[in-house]
Structures are given as structure tokens and as C-alpha cells.
């Protein structure tokens, strides 16, 4: 079971909750350009930005509550450049002072009588840390441009940077360069279209691929399986 809602405290973030099925199951988590702060049975975990699908084994009865940050926001909350967490899952205490991580885990435990109230703790803490971190309008502009289908050169000109400067800033903000972020965002857009009933060929054209074969290659590279297999698996768990 999986459900999500928009965050009331952190702009663009998503609060999600997932319960594992009654039987052991391997889940495929797809790249989305985001970072997550997750409460698991073992404590608090940070999921970095992925460049490829991650396979995870769900234990029966396991429950997860997470806060998914939009591209570029996670580093401001967590205090580390995104590229240091690329394709990684690390405990929060590896990034924050041990006392801060422990206090957050204790607050979560106290309010986990309802999973939603536990998620509110993550939102509150993230909002406080964002108020302390300097805002970077450039990051939002880059993500919006790439999501809209602009080329890396067009985005660089639009924000007043060279492509080399944009690449360096993108590593810190998103975990990878703008070309990779554009690939991931285009893949997610195409997948949303196909899941919404749009034929793959039409979804490929609308998302900006050269043709359906191009979409198929990218799905295989980013998801690790063919599009038909990915769709047969149903909607994968997020976070």
C-alpha cells in the first residue's frame, strides 16, 4: 500500500507512506532526480539521487514514512552536496551530528501512533533547516528549464552560466550533471504519459524522444527492464 500528498511545510516536496505486502517482495525504485528522508524500522535513512533503478527487498509488515524533496532542495536540508549521496542510501547520523539525528528519531517514535503525524515531524524539521539555508533561485530555474525540454546550452544561457559552471553547480544541487537530470526528468514524464494511457509512440514524441525506439533504450538504461516489463510490475514504490 502506498499513498502520498503534497507537503504543507516544504514547497514542492511530497510526503509519502508505504506498507510492505504480507509476503516478501522485491521492489524497483526508479530514478526521479529527488532525494528522500525516510523513517524505516531501523531508523532514519537518506536516499540520494539515483542514476538508475534501485532494487530493494521488502520484509513482510515493514512500514516506511518519507519526505521526498524536489530536485535541488535536498542538499539544503541535509547539508551535503547531492553528488556525495548519488546512488546511495545512508543513515542520517552519518550526515548530521549524532545528537540531532537521535533527537529527530525520538520525536518520530513519539508521534508514530499515526504515520501522518510522524511525517509532520520530518516536514517541520526540514522547514526549519531550509529557513537557515540560503535560497538558490538558480537551482529552481535550471530544474524548470530542463523539465520543460530546454537544452543544456539554452538553460546555461538562461541562468547566465557557462556549461562548465552549470555542470559544477548541478553536481552539488542535483547529484549529477544537467544532461543526466534532463534524461531522468524526460523518462519520468514519458512514464507518466504511458501509465495515463498514452500510446508509447505518442508518449515518446510528447516527452521529447526521437522516436519510440529511443524511449525504449532509455527505459532499459534507467529502469533496467523493458517498458512492457516495467508496466507489468505496476506502479513501483516511491522513495
UniProtKB/TrEMBL annotation:
Residues 136-233 form the HTH araC/xylS-type domain. Pfam families: DUF6597, HTH_18. The keyword Protein biosynthesis does not apply. Signal peptide: none annotated. Keywords: DNA-binding, Transcription, Transcription regulation. It comes from the Bacteria. This is Helix-turn-helix domain-containing protein.
Amino acid at each position: 500500500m502506498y499513498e502520498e500528498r503534497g507537503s504543507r511545510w516544504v514547497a514542492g516536496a511530497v510526503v509519502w507512506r508505504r506498507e510492505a505486502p504480507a509476503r516478501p517482495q522485491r521492489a524497483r525504485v526508479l530514478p526521479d532526480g529527488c532525494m528522500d528522508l525516510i523513517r524505516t524500522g531501523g531508523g532514519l535513512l537518506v536516499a540520494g539521487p539515483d542514476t538508475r533503478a534501485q532494487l530493494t527487498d521488502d520484509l513482510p509488515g515493514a512500514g516506511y514514512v518519507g519526505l521526498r524533496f524536489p530536485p535541488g532542495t535536498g542538499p539544503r536540508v541535509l547539508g551535503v552536496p547531492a553528488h556525495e549521496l548519488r546512488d546511495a542510501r545512508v543513515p542520517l547520523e552519518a550526515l548530521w551530528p549524532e545528537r540531532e539525528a537521535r533527537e529527530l528519531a525520538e520525536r518520530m517514535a513519539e508521534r508514530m501512533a499515526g504515520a501522518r503525524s510522524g511525517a509532520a515531524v520530518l516536514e517541520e524539521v526540514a522547514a526549519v533547516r531550509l529557513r537557515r539555508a540560503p535560497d538558490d533561485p538558480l537551482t529552481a530555474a535550471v530544474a524548470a528549464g530542463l523539465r520543460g525540454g530546454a537544452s543544456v546550452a539554452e538553460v546555461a544561457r538562461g541562468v547566465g552560466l557557462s556549461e562548465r559552471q552549470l555542470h559544477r553547480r548541478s553536481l552539488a544541487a542535483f547529484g549529477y550533471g544537467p544532461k543526466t537530470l534532463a534524461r531522468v526528468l524526460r523518462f519520468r514524464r514519458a512514464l507518466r504519459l504511458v501509465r495515463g494511457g498514452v500510446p508509447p509512440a505518442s508518449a515518446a514524441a510528447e516527452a521529447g524522444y526521437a522516436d519510440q525506439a529511443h524511449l525504449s533504450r532509455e527505459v532499459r538504461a534507467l529502469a533496467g527492464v523493458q517498458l512492457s516489463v516495467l508496466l507489468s510490475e505496476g506502479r513501483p514504490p516511491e522513495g
